Amino acid sequence: MARLRALVVAVVALFALGPAQVMGEGAQREGVHVAIACGALGIELEMCAEAASQWARETGNTVQIVNTPNSPGDRFQLFVQLLSSQSSDIDVLQIDVVWAGMLQTHLADLSDMREEADAAMFPALVANNLVDGRFVAVPWFTDAGVLYYRKDMLAKYGFTPPETWQDLTRIAAAIQQAEREAGNGRMWGYVFQGKAYEGLTCNALEWVSSYGGGSFLAPDRTFTADNPRAAASLDEAAGWIGTISPRGVLNYDEEASRGVFQTGNAVFMRNWPYAWALAQAESSPIRGKVGVVALPAGPGGESAATLGGWQLAVSRYSKNPEAAKDLVRYLTSAKEQKRRAIKGSVNPTIMALYDDPDVLAANPFFGTLSSAFKNAVARPARPAGARYNQVSDAIWRASYDVLQGDKTGKAAMEDLEEEIARIAYRARWAETKVGQ
User: Fold this and answer.
1) What is the pLDDT of residue 418?
2) pTM for this prediction
3) pLDDT tens, position by position, 318-328
4) 145-306+380-436 domain in CATH 3.40.190.10?
5) What is the CATH number assigned to the segment(s) 2-136+308-375?
6) CATH 3.40.190.10 residue ranges in the chain?
7) CA distances (Å), origin 164, targets 16, 135, 178, 333, 402
8) Which of 394, 398, 434, 379 is nearest to 218 (CA)?
């Protein structure tokens, strides 16, 4: 326990928002202390701190924000270490949509919030957080990959937003060349998340699924990676490296991609909806010059966006579980989700907010996203269960090999299917180990 507490001190910074004076409805007793780990990209941390501070003022409690690593993988490992030691250092945790099953034994049952969630939130998100009959997390905000584009540049050169990946490749190359000939030598056609991490799993799933190539591991645990459409989609993506995308994209995460796009040095960008508010900020060089559309489709396929998003869960080891649950209820309320949508372009999990005039005024493209969230492509977390991290690691490693030029799409997908089969064998999903 002492070692893990030292890890928390070394890896995360704790800062108190201070005691509040007003006792609010739902507070358990005055002076209760709650620590929450929230915020990752853009202004998420700021918005969480604002809302938590308001909750503290209304309830008479104190709240502490735990500033965790930006990398989801690092954050997950930190949570695993803390929860495995039954540490009470963090009461409320912001968890990825794919973590519910992996962490469920350490999470409190939030079934008393289930009825409200069923009535208002996207059913797929609620179902995602039901594990063995327990509602282990409340959907807080959702995500799906979208395509950002420079609408001023497309208009300048007579293009409309791309409907297919082939369209994107052609348009990006044409505008990139024209801009460079005009003196903008730093212009690139397309940036995305090509770094070897979970973000590449999301991008690769979108490419493969848009080609009609499946999702690597089907819901019934059928292995689907090794097919010609999946291979072709990755080969096409590899063709972008060094042509319409800088080689540096192989080290880009969400924020690195946004940095290039927002400084005006890319025509297209794949990212999550959070980047909209930042692109439209008063200090943004591209303010008023950005459009957002669905990601392109593959040949003969359809647009596919990876379902993302984050949930709020309560640690089973919290010393103040009722206050922690009350904070979760406050943060996931319609009022707070609306505020976050308007201020930070954070996609609500409450369906009615996609028809809210104030939300749509701040985020015009939200009106097109509701159906995307209902039909977004899920990562293979449910069939992989506790082995999801291993499956995802295998996916992004195989995809990275193709992007880097070390393997063809066909060879990488053959190897990936064998690796997933080995994971399945070790997890006893399958009876026969590949190669035996």
Assistant:
1) 97
2) 0.78
3) 999 999 999 99
4) yes
5) 3.40.190.10
6) 2-136+308-375, 145-306+380-436
7) 49, 39, 21, 37, 21
8) 379
